[in-house]
Structures are given as structure tokens and as C-alpha cells.
Amino acid sequence: MKNIQRHRVFNLLQESSSHLIGKEVNVKGWVRTRRGNKNVAFIALNDGSVIHSIQVVVEVQGFGNDELLRQITTGACISVNGTLVESLGKGQRVEIHAGEIFVYGSADPEKYPLQKKGHTLEFLREIAHLRPRTNTFGAVFRLRHALSFAIHKYFNDNGFYYLHTPIITGSDAEGAGAMFRVTTLDMKDVPRKKDGGVDYSQDFFGKETNLTVSGQLEGELGALALSNVYTFGPTFRAENSNTSRHLAEFWMIEPEMAFYDIHDNMDLAEDFLKYLVTYILENCNDDLEFLQKQYDHGLIERLQHVTQHTFQRMSYTEAIEILEKSGKKFEYPVKWGVDLQSEHERYLVEQHFKKPVILTDYPKEIKAFYMKQNDDGKTVRALDVLFPKIGEIIGGSQREEDYDKLHKRIEEMGIHQEDVWWYLETRKFGTAPHSGFGLGFERLMLFVSGMGNIRDVIPFPRTPQNAEF
Ligand code: ATP
Ligand code: MN
């Protein structure tokens, strides 16, 4: 086959490819569908660069290689040399009139699982190794990329440094959830201490270690030196919560800012979320339109709505009053002191205020030890951002910078000093007011993609009883 310059389908479908019309081009990709008759074949070829496929037209008579043409079925991977021409058909600007075709890999129509369109998302989860080949997952994964890129861009443009916090951690003080143990000990012959407990001194790190639930504590160390930092990495929770909003392995974005109080923190959270949603609206229109048509007819309007309205800010206490007065029967009853469930959060956002809500000043009993204590002795300077369809999308706070108060809270909560001595030292040496938050990347992906289940916005979901792919 002749060596001709390869083009991505994305580029060929742009207006800017006009100068290529009439010229020979090469495209490589996977066959989505093949239609036609014994004279002419229409192949929809997709290379993942864009939701659309490019149409390849083959004059069957005179092509002269029937065996090769037989292999061009849904799922096959091919390389095409041909002339780019303006298309007479509806729905595409250009198409390729094939000269030469090479088959990299055929896909037996009897066996290829994605032979037909319209598989359920549940079925596609069972073939997570092939589902990137569908239009849906192509769109979702391109959105995931765009969103990741926008996150780094936002922080870079605003003077934040990307700090890589550890995945394996020696502290379990964060208290955000059950952890996965990391060990090289022989499970069949675990070394024991005299009292019968496991002797972790013989383990790889000489102590008990786990996969991190959050990069925040280390993020704070960075903020108290570089002023504005963020982490963006995988986090792990071993909770057995089989919901459409929880994964055992998910990605979290955690900015941490010195000299920010809770109001600065809220301003950042709101500006950041609006920036990200705007970025997606401006850069991912084709994929959004596809997802809107297939899954969520209100998607684009909901995204625009978030960018256009000021988030409602109020205290947890005020929110409880609204919920109590609502007259709604919730599955989990509300009263001051309870942790809000997503049914409560979604009521506030979707029915009461009809826009995103930021709640602050939660009871200290339901929040982590490091949150700044209010003078009332009951609440802490926590903030949660609540979104339509999702509920909590961000959890954050102003941090307690006072050594004595933090130390006292650590004792009250029974946290082992030897786990957090290094964290406490930041309050001993050059402490400063500071704040931060954690944004669940897949929660935001749920929001921007309109998908209903968190398993469908990450390439390889990790959930209880599921780590096949
Ligand atoms: P939830 O109450 O929804 O279980 P959380 O309060 O345990 O969440 P945080 O510890 O505050 O969550 O984590 C910060 C953010 O990380 C949350 O606001 C959410 O967006 C995301 N998040 C938390 N747990 C999960 C999970 N299991 N899967 C995916 N995202 C999660
Ligand atoms: Mn939370």
C-alpha cells in the first residue's frame, strides 16, 4: 500500500480541510457500520478523534479483492487510501472514495459483541474492554480528557502548583472512609506480635500502610510553603456502598490555599466549577449534543444554568430549617445534627433554590478533625457544594490553624498523635490561616456528561465485587 499522509477524522471533518478536497488522504480506524449493495459499499469509519465517523465509499466492481472486502465488517480495523471528495449525501461534508484498503484486523461478525447498536449500559459494563469503541464511551472519555485538561489549565493560569501527594499512606487519620491495606506480608503466614496482633514491623514499610483516601493532609503541607497548590490523583475508599455515585477508586481534585478563609474558599469553588462547565460547553459541543440526545434531554440547558446563576450560600442550620419546613417526607428524617443525604441536598438544589447551593458551618460531630472551629463551640467552618442531579460534589473547609485547638480536637476524637505529628508541626512552625476542598472528578463527570451511573464515566470502574478489567 502506498505511503500517504495520515489524517485524523476530526481534522478531515473540519471546514479547514477544504484544501484537501480532491487530494489523496489516508485514514485509519475501526469500522462502525457497513451498508450498500453489490456495486457499492458505504463504510462508516471511526478513529475515536471525534464522535462522527467518516464515510468511505468503495466501488465494489473493479476493486478486485473480494476476500479483503469480505473482512470489512463492524469492528474491523482498516487503513484506507483514497480521495477526499465533497459528499452528496446528507449529514456529512466530505467522504473518501477508496483507492486502496488494508485490513489490520478483522472482527468475526458471529462473535464481535458490538455487532449491533443499542446495547444497554449494563451490558457494556460487562465488556468494559470493548466499550470504548462505542459512540457513548468515546464521547464520555473525550469529555474526561477535556475536563482534566481544563482543571490543570485553570490552576496553572491562576498561580497554583500541582503537588503530587502519595498514593500509599502511613496515616489513617483523615477519617474519610474505610481503607485498602497495602502489604507484602505473606497472607498464609502472617507474622504475629506477642499479643496476637499482626507484626507490621516486618512489612515492606515497617508499619501499617494503606491506599490514600485523600491527598489533603499532604496538600496542606504544600500550601504552607508554596501558598497555592492542588492535587489531582486517584483516591480509594473500601466502603461497601453500592450506589450510582460511589466508586472504590475515584479521582479527586484538592486545591489547598494559604491565606484563604472560608469565603475565599467558596469564591474559588464557585469560580472553578463555572470555569470547568463553561470550558466543556465551549469545547465539547459534538459530544454533549450526542449525550443529550441519547441520555439526558436537559443536559446542555442544565450546564448553562449552572454557569449563569450565583450559587446560593447559607449555613447548615438554615438549610435544616428549610428542610424541616418543607413538609416533604424524606426517607431519612432531618433534624439538626444529622448528616445530609443526597435526597435532602437535591431537594434544596432542585426544588427549593433551583440552583447550586453552598452550605457552611456544619456540626463538628459529623465533620473531620482538621476543620476550623467556630466560636459557638458546636459548628466548624466546613463547606459543601451541592449540585443538581448529584447532591454533594465538593466537600471542603477552612482548616484549624491553631495548634492548641487542633491538638485538643485530635485528643477528643481519639486520633493517635503518632499518626499526625508531622501535620501538627505545621501549626507549631509558621502556621497560617488556610483552606481547601475536594472535588470528586467522577461526580463532576456525571454532571457534565448527563450519565446516570458513576460506573459509566470512568474507563475501568472499581466497585465491590468488580475489578475484572
Ligand atoms: P459522600 O457523603 O457523598 O459519600 P463524602 O462526604 O464521603 O461523600 P468527602 O470525603 O467529602 O466525601 O470527599 C470529597 C468529594 O469526593 C465528595 O464531595 C465527592 O465529590 C467525592 N467522593 C467521595 N466519595 C466518593 C466515592 N466513593 N466515589 C466517588 N466520588 C466520591
Ligand atoms: Mn463530604
Labels describing this entry:
469 residues, alpha+beta, OB fold (Dihydrolipoamide Acetyltransferase, E2P), BirA Bifunctional Protein, domain 2, 2 domains, eight-stranded mixed beta sheet, five-stranded mixed β-barrel, 13 helices, binds adenosine-5'-triphosphate, binds manganese (II) ion
Task: Describe what you observe in this structure.
With 469 residues, this protein is an alpha+beta fold. The protein has 2 domains: 5-105, Nucleic acid-binding proteins (OB fold (Dihydrolipoamide Acetyltransferase, E2P)), CATH 2.40.50.140; 131-178 and 213-456, Bira Bifunctional Protein, Domain 2 (BirA Bifunctional Protein, domain 2, 2-Layer Sandwich). It has helices at 9-12, 66-70, 121-126, 135-157, 216-226, 262-283, 285-294, 299-308, 316-325, 342-353, 403-412, 417-428, 441-449, and strands at residues 24-36, 40-46, 54-59, 77-86, 94-105, 161-162, 168-169, 181-182, 209-211, 228-236, 249-258, 312-315, 357-363, 379-387, 391-398, 434-440. It has an 8-stranded mixed beta sheet, with helices on both faces. The protein has a 5-stranded mixed beta barrel with strand order 1-2-3-5-4. The protein has a 3-stranded antiparallel beta sheet with strand order 7-9-8, with no helix packed on it. The chain is elongated, with a radius of gyration of 27 Å. The chain starts with 8 loop residues before the first helix and ends in a 20-residue tail after the last helix. The mean pLDDT is 95. It binds adenosine-5'-triphosphate (ATP) and manganese (II) ion (MN). Adenosine-5'-triphosphate binds at residues 176-177, 237, 246-247, 250, 252, 392-395, 438, 440, 442-443. The site of manganese (II) ion has 3 residues, from β15.
